[in-house]
TrEMBL record:
It comes from the Eukaryota. Keywords: Membrane, Transmembrane, Transmembrane helix. Signal peptide: none annotated. It comes from Rotaria socialis. The lineage of its organism: Eukaryota, Metazoa, Spiralia, Gnathifera, Rotifera. The chain crosses the membrane at residues 84-105, 242-261, 288-314, 364-386, 392-413, 467-488. This is Gustatory receptor.
Amino acid sequence: MATSSPLVVSINNYSYNNVNKTTNVDDDFDCVKVEISDLDNNCSNSTTLSLMRCKTQILHPFRKLLCFIGWRPFGADSWQRSSVFFRIINIIYPIFILLLLLFNYTYEIIICQGKLNVRTDTQKTTTTTTTVTSSPTEHDLTTSLHKNQSAGTWATLQPGITRPHTTNASLTLIHAHAECGHIFTTYILPDIFHCVAFIIGFIHFRVTEGEPMYSLMEKVFIHADQNVRLSGTNRAIRRLKLFLLIGCIWVIVSVATHALSNAMNDFAHTLIFRETTLQIVTEKPMRYALFTIDIICLLISNCIHMAVAMNYACHCEMILFYCKAIRIRLEENSIHLLEAMKRILDLATSISQLNSSASRMMSILIIFFLERSILGFILLVVNQIFQVDMWIYRSFYTLVWLSILAFCLAQAARVTSKCDKFYRISLSMRVYGYHNATPGELDGFLLFLSKAELRVKLFGITIRPGTIIFISITFFLVFIVLLQTSIISNANSFL
């Protein structure tokens, strides 16, 4: 299954000066020395050089990313792969990654990560101090309520502080404003989607070891049109490098956005730590330690998002490049219909592979990205905490999830749109003719394209540019109606 770069095989035969003429046949094989080495940059074949560049600049960084998140075994390309050390590491490390993910799922529920409650986390609160020495009045309960609400999302009554004569009704009211709401839909359900995507990706890459991507690259580079082979392959490599760079920037920005959210709360998680002055001083190292572990867990979690998105986007880009090479030759009338049908059938096979495990992982995470994007957009619009750091956090949170959602959907829609051009070309060929092809052959080619299934699917639905535009416009219209009917309320009279 493991792939390797083009190899040079050098065979040197050595002869024995034996007087005895009855040499054993097995000795002939013992006299053969085989030296295998990677090709260097002096190779004259441009396709081979392009594949080497693509493997060095694209596949190697991607494989390191897969090793980091536990989807690819360490030492997979080493001759010591079957050693005891690598076997132990490749068993322990994925379990360690899974434990970190489980810690991240639990920790974000405990601290209400991101402050995603639309009702409580978008309202400006005031902090006042009162001394309760007798039975509470209505003013005292109101002041105490505001104080506990501003203490934090999970803030509860602090141990050691006596509030005599506080009624059960007031305690219920205080806890209702202090609790983290919508835990299942905001945290648990997206975490389930993320965990399922991780398991599918682990099984997929451990079995295939990234072979489909490399085989698709070989196929695309070999069948590239001679007229645009050098410039086209260089353009494809630059495009894939740009995808990896954008993915790294996305991971950094997403982690920085989360760090900003914790910094605004002074890394204080009131469910774990008490808010007395002495304990804040003594427990600061523990706060920072938990914050560091949380950042590491979030880095791994977002690297999983990046790995799934980059795998899907790179597959789509290679299919687009392959599709363009076939379409150019059809438009130039420089390929026979039978050969074109073989290439298109091969293209359909590549799209079918894209619609299998890669599409399932991507579909699950698309739901995750969509939920975060919609929630972040609503929080940004209805935010009433007029602070610079809060506006920066809300803006970047929305931008982070909306960008990766739009990127993945755009790649899928591009493939479907470009493949639809084959059918339009076949209609033109049926009208104006094609070489010496008979009308019956052109009709057969047209029927073949109608049954070729050159469509990219997510959730089992064909993704087209028109579909994405229609859904986006519908969402904005519904959101405008919700604002106008005050179902989603905002203090800004302009909105």
